[in-house]
Amino acid sequence: MEYRLLGRSGFKVPVLSFGTGTFGGKGDFFQAWGSTDVEEAKRLVDICLDAGLTLFDTADVYSYGAAEEILGQAIKGRRDRVLISTKGTFTMSSDPNDVGSSRYHLIRSVEGSLRRLGTDYIDLYQLHGFDAFTPMEEVLSTLDQMVRDGKIRYIGCSNFSGWHLMKALAVSDRYGWPRYVAHQAYYSLIGRDYEWELMPLALDQGVGAVVWSPLGWGRLTGRIRRGVPLPENSRLRSKMVAEAGPPVDDEYVFRVVDALDEIAQETGKTIPQIAINWLLQRPTVSTVIIGARNEQQLRENLGAVGWNLTPEQVARLDAASARPPAYPYWHQIGFHRNPHPTLDPK
User: Of the listed 62, 186, 187, 194, which one is catalytic?
Assistant: First the structure.
């Protein structure tokens, strides 16, 4: 397993990390993702560790705390062998203060995660979403204190826009507080919006991408095809889950899958393996979060590493998944003094 530095920090993470959104299965939304129990979670953790995958990603909101609890039990007795990433910000109860990134909620969230995970520190703590109501000085000073207290090692954010992230970095620099070294962001062959602003920002500021949903919200599993009904166990069968995910045109998905099919025949790799391998060759990507309902899916996703697509194959996937950029990016492309990291600067 290859390890990479997480952003502009000295912290190394495996290029694949394991997401625990399938743990617990509490509530209609998370039930559609999966319902892994403690015994199955232990088995999946065993497989990950055998493969050199040591980073496990979770969040307080996943199955309303159950995912963290199950992960905590699955790693019990081997905390020193794993890295834990968790997140907080989203609503956890009807308490009006049990949401957001206020000092009150962050302290409460971190303490709750530590308790459920059965640990006294979190390797990477990320804000799950941007809180526009809480001053950034309050947010970052609170995170600074928890780093000083030893409860958090590194901080990151998730689902921020470019200006959210840049302003937060500027505030950290102004006061000498810890900077976000990670941005957990949606990025896939059928969701390349990350490239236009967040990727150049990450290159400039040293923020590593922690990629979520690398298979495009379940659309790049190889089972979504023209004229074929959705598989019975697809999360997309749940209207609630499908509408919560990134919007994408079906024909666009089919076009990308056609290109993936061609390369699968050339390489002998599966469509998910190729889609993940493509991401691992993109600028700023530190780690890609893979999920699995069972051992078979996990082993298949682990097969995305240890080999690389050729430059020609990457170029074909780039072309098949290309979308017209939004303004001002389409205008900037023509200015040779403003090269883009995913385009030929010449």
Answer: 62
